[in-house]
Amino acid sequence: TGKSQFLKFAAKLSNRSVITTGLGSTSAGLTVTAVKDGGEWMLEAGALVLADGGLCCIDEFDSMREHDRATIHEAMEQQTISVAKAGLVTTLSTRTIIFGATNPKGHYDPNLSLSVNTTLSGPLLSRFDIVLVLLDTKNPEWDAVVSSHILAEGGLSEEKDTEPLTDIWPLAMLRRYIYFVKGYFKPILTKEAEKVISSYYQLQRRSATQNAARTTVRMLESLIRLAQAHARLMFRNEVTRLDAITAILCIESSMTTSAIVDSVGNALHSNFTENPDLENAKQEKLILDKLRSFDEFPDIISTQEL
């Protein structure tokens, strides 16, 4: 499913990034370690501290020991790490994004909760904003697309993609753009966005049965962060209704707490649409209609004219 490729590409987009694997990561390697140099104890930064202000990619997340995984709870929740080693007591900043990739325990069973499939605890799963499940389903059409792309990349196929690449930003330009909007824009929520996010969160709290560990206050914080991130990406300083809808779609596509969108399908097989504005309008109308259909929210805002 290309999990490692996702991690490597995300690391390339970030100005500061650290990549590590779960099998070779200990709690000291992720946080800090105390070393003796010239008769004095010193602290050496680990992966999370080195990635402060950037991205920390952890591959094979399931290979880490339970004790080592527990050390990142504070880093993901409070953005700090408290250290008390060799008489050195301090707090270090870990304002980093943690991007983890894991394999399921055996065959993935969609009828079971995500915590059972991945053997990750509920408190740890709730700290991730998005939990994206990539399933390698047997789809003949998709297999043909993938095999054609791999053969074309290797130069083994005569069929080449003739699409012009003049309008596509290079990776360096995309990295500069993300770095600029991340530091320049501080979006604030509009009343419409607040109404949509609040209604969706209350709906999730009422309908959550199988994945109750995910529907905590952290989900509300995740929705706000995702909406603000989309507003930054769209070069805006305020979170509009579209940004809130996009944040809801990100949560829904994680396939862990789906309460509205039942026809998302496999996220691995999704493609870019020819008319993204029309697709956004359709998704916006679908979600707002679903929220309005519940009696708990009779005063939900009306959809815009399409």
From TrEMBL:
It is an enzyme of class 3 (hydrolase). GO terms for biological process: DNA repair. Keywords: ATP-binding, DNA-binding, Nucleotide-binding. Residues 1-150 form the MCM C-terminal AAA(+) ATPase domain. Its EC number is 3.6.4.12. One of its GO terms (molecular function) is ATP binding. One of its GO terms (cellular component) is nucleus. SUPFAM superfamilies: P-loop containing nucleoside triphosphate hydrolases (SSF52540). PANTHER family: DNA HELICASE MCM9, DNA REPLICATION LICENSING FACTOR MCM FAMILY MEMBER. Belongs to the MCM family. This is DNA helicase. The lineage of its organism: Eukaryota, Viridiplantae, Streptophyta, Embryophyta, Tracheophyta.
